[in-house]
Write a structure and sequence with these properties.
Strand order of the largest sheet: 2-3-4-1-5
Number of helices: 43
Mean pLDDT: 84
Strand content: 5-15%
Oligomer: single chain
Radius of gyration: 32 Å
Length: about 850
């Protein structure tokens, strides 16, 4: 039965209860869970098993109106006719006698579903029936929602638990189980858009069932090539609302109103944000939030609140009439701006409201645009485009907003559109000279000029800073590290804390981190990462992810939060790093990271090289070398900057040589040699030696490259080179040096938990008869922080950073069940019983 997918453990426990009952052992079962989680389905399965075992049964469901009449819930369950309003002891005794007569005929099961609505008299009688389970062949089964959580219900649950009642709390379906259920309902495996909707259901079987049933019934799902997907991107909105909203009717009207208001704020929000949207003091919302928490609708994410099931956001949002939504968003933006909240929150409200150009909006944008476009370009761009349509903007403000729009488009991965904005601005006759100079510099930088210089005599910090920003980037890409380091220093001094130069500061910090890493100056690079300013988070986090990957600080890379979705280059780079770590560690990764639509590979190597790296490695590890070569081959073109392609060239030589592309391997060797001759980047001679040694099958030359990588604090590249050394020796049947090189590589891989790289290397060396003897490994302690595996350390640090289990699963490319298993091991090893205690024991970063 598909409604019971992934409920084998619960069914086995219920089967045991029925077997015990048949053998004369009575008991109580209490099934707790949110609406739709599968309580009633488990009850139905229990009744089927009981009937098959020859047990008699009575079943009923309490109703919200039952509280007005004593014994109404239990009388309905037992099909008893009691005088209306009879709350006497005699009425209770009659119900107890009915159960006794039922049990006299053999083992019996009595089920009361939706017990949270039962009247107090029925609850008291249920308790007394629980007392009798030791003397009669009776199995009492109660199914209950968490809300409303009345004191009488709480006390009854605790009483039965103390008498060893079986407490079942069905968990949300894991992603694999949810996908299995969705496949059964839709008739084929879910495709991209439908899979996103399945994920948004948060593992709630009823939400998933009614949603997909509704989409199928309305012909909004199409099956093609063995995949089921939505007919159009907006097909699910009405169906989602109808399928989900009706099941939230058990919540009080005040809670439903608050939840609808919360959907205006997106996936996560603070109590203060909600109070501004509702227009009530935060203190007045405590009861509302507590009820939503108890119901399992809201949960915590660090210091913020979030919907437990993302599908609830769209469902509740769709119940607000469209005109009212826009007005609510507009009023929320006004309230937030008046309270001085973060620009990104206000811009999100303006965007959702259709970017209304209220009188306060243009001036507000003029003050916050540089910070806003750096932090959240996806929110900033539509608001800026809308406001720029106003004919009454003065010239200086219009230029300021066009400048911000161009930067926002670049950050959103839309550089051609940004160049269009710049070109259109420069055609304006009334453009002030200072703004003309700024846009001229920006056009040169976006067009890829090798050197970007401000006009002679220009003393404008924004113009000069923008020129330095692009110049430093080009210098780094060419491998002119000393020049790039000086340019970034000048740019940072010029930017200072000037909010107008936020973008300059972010770009300069990111390039400087790359430069210091390439020079092997790890300490200064990490100091700079530790000092970064929040408004530069995206580019600096991306630079930090690259630094952490190559220097082997993988736990830190896994803990860092991804940049905002609108910051396409930074987010792509960070996602690529995480995917690479997962591949090196042999952790579950169902597909390579991607954006839909994503940039072309020749653009990808410029904006997010580790993303391209992950996609190519994914293809290689899955036996598709032609696909990997297809992604890497364009890097030998002369126009690809040395600093960007240098990490790929040895890999390209290896792949091309092994798969019948000698011309491509030779081109990669020539490219590496040319880069080493033209650029003053310490790693380039090592790359050239690595490539040349691979082509010439010279293990000594590749070993020297490995030594250079190690000297530059690049342990992963050193380990990869040592694997090449081992393979070159193995192909010559030189077993001892092959084993020695591989042992050193394994040591480096082990330090970062790269089990996948070790497995991959072992398999390749085994083809040549080379195997390492068992390593004498230091036994890991059984308890304490040192007992944790690398993955457990990562998860513990994420817990300390306030991440929820779903957040951790998403960031580490793991299932929620895997994360929960790791958490259980962590708590056992640290001898603690809560996430709070885990967080307290996490040591500071080294």
């Amino acid at each position: 039965m598909d409604e019971l997918v992934s409920r084998d453990a619960e069914i086995d426990r219920l089967r045991g209860c029925v077997a015990d009952l048949v053998n004369g052992v009575s008991g109580c079962v209490w099934i707790d869970g949110e609406p739709g989680i599968g309580k009633s389905a488990l009850v139905r399965r229990l009744l089927e098993m009981a009937a098959a075992a020859g047990c008699r049964s009575r079943t009923g469901r309490a109703r919200p109106a039952d509280h007005t009449t004593a014994y109404r819930s239990l009388a309905r369950c037992l099909s008893a006719r009691l005088p209306a309003g009879d709350a006497s002891v005699a009425a209770e005794q009659r119900l107890l006698d009915l159960v006794e007569r039922l049990c006299a005929g053999g083992p019996a099961v009595v089920v009361l579903d939706d017990l949270q609505w039962a009247d107090d008299a029925s609850l008291l009688t249920w308790r007394r029936l629980g007392e009798r389970t030791g003397t009669a062949p009776l199995l009492l089964v109660a199914a209950c929602r968490p809300v409303p959580r009345r004191r009488a219900v709480t006390l009854l649950r605790q009483y039965l638990a103390d008498r060893r009642a079986m407490i079942l709390e069905p968990a949300a379906l894991e992603p694999v189980a949810a996908n299995t259920l969705a496949t059964a309902l839709a008739g084929a495996a879910p495709g991209g858009r439908l899979r996103s909707l399945v994920d948004a259901a948060g593992g709630n079987p009823r939400y998933l069932r009614e949603l997909i049933d509704g989409l199928v019934r309305e012909h909004r799902i199409r099956i093609a090539d063995g995949t089921a997907d939505l007919v159009d991107a907006g097909a699910e909105a009405e169906t989602t609302a109808a399928a989900v909203a009706a099941h939230l009717g058990f919540l009080s009207p005040a809670v439903l109103d608050a939840l609808r208001a919360a959907t205006l704020l997106g996936s996560e929000f603070s109590v203060r944000d909600l109070s501004l949207v509702i227009g009530q003091p935060a203190t007045s919302l405590s009861g509302v939030i507590r009820e939503a928490f108890t119901a399992g609708v809201l949960t915590e994410r660090g210091q913020l609140l979030t919907f437990r099931h993302p599908i609830l956001i769209n469902a509740l949002y769709a119940t607000i009439p469209a005109p009212e939504r826009a007005d609510r968003h507009r009023r929320a933006a006004t309230a937030m701006a008046g309270a001085g909240l973060r620009p990104v929150l206000i811009a999100a409200q303006l965007r959702a409201a259709g970017a209304p150009a209220d009188e306060w909006v243009p001036g507000w944008l003029g003050r916050v645009a540089p910070t806003l476009t750096a932090q959240a370009p996806v929110e900033a761009v539509p608001v800026l485009e809308h406001v720029l349509q106003r004919p009454d903007l003065d010239g200086a403000l219009r230029s300021e907003l066009r400048w911000a729009l161009a930067h926002g488009l670049v950050a959103a991965g839309r550089t051609p559109d940004a160049l269009g904005v710049v070109a259109e601005t420069l055609t304006a006759e009334a453009l002030e000279p200072v703004w003309r100079a700024r846009f001229e510099v920006l056009r040169a930088g976006l067009a890829g000029a090798a050197e970007v210089e401000p006009p002679d005599g220009c003393d404008d910090p924004l113009t000069a800073g923008t020129a330095l920003q692009f110049t430093a980037l080009r210098q780094f890409q060419r491998g002119a590290l000393d020049a790039a380091r000086e340019s970034t220093a000048q740019a940072l001094r010029l930017a200072g804390d000037d909010v107008r130069l936020t973008g300059v500061r972010a770009a300069a910090l990111a390039v400087r981190i790359h430069v210091l890493t390439a020079l092997g100056q790890i300490g200064p690079a990490r100091e700079l990462l530790a000092e970064r300013h929040p408004d530069t988070a995206g580019p600096v986090v991306a630079a930090g992810a690259e630094h952490d990957f190559w220097t082997g600080r993988w736990e830190h890379a896994a803990v860092a939060r991804l940049p905002e979705p609108g910051d396409v280059p930074s987010r792509l780079q960070c996602a690529g790093v995480r995917a690479l770590i997962a591949l090196y560690r042999d952790e579950p990764l169902t597909e390579p990271p991607r954006l839909d639509p994503g940039p072309a590979d020749d653009d990808l190597v410029t904006i997010a090289p580790r993303h391209l790296h992950a996609q190519a490695l994914w293809a290689q590890r899955r036996g598709r070398p032609d696909e990997a070569l297809g992604r890497l081959a364009p890097l030998v073109r002369d126009r690809t900057a040395a600093a960007l392609r240098q990490a790929f060239l040895p890999w390209l030589v290896r792949l091309a040589g092994e798969h019948g592309e000698p011309g491509l391997a030779e081109a990669a060797v020539r490219a590496a040699a040319a880069d080493a001759a033209d650029a003053a980047m310490p790693v380039l001679p090592a790359v050239a030696a690595h490539c040349h040694g691979l082509l010439g099958t010279d293990p000594a030359e590749v070993a020297r490259a490995a030594d250079d990588y190690e000297r530059l604090s690049m342990p992963i590249r050193a380990a990869d080179a040592l694997l090449d050394v081992a393979l070159l020796h193995a192909r010559r049947d030189e077993r001892d040096p092959a084993q020695a090189a591989w042992r050193d590589a394994v040591t480096a891989y082990t330090a970062v938990g790269a089990a996948g790289a070790i497995r991959h290397g072992n398999a390749r060396l085994a083809e040549h008869g080379v195997r390492l003897p068992p390593l004498r490994r230091r036994k890991r302690p059984e308890t304490g922080w040192a007992a944790l595996t690398p993955t457990e350390v990562t998860i513990a640090r994420l817990v300390a950073a306030g991440r929820s289990t779903p957040d951790i699963a998403t960031e580490l490319f793991l299932s929620r069940r895997t994360v929960e298993s790791h958490l259980s091991h962590i708590m056992s090893k640290l001898a603690v019983r809560s996430r709070i205690e885990v967080a307290r024991l996490v040591p500071a970063e080294p």
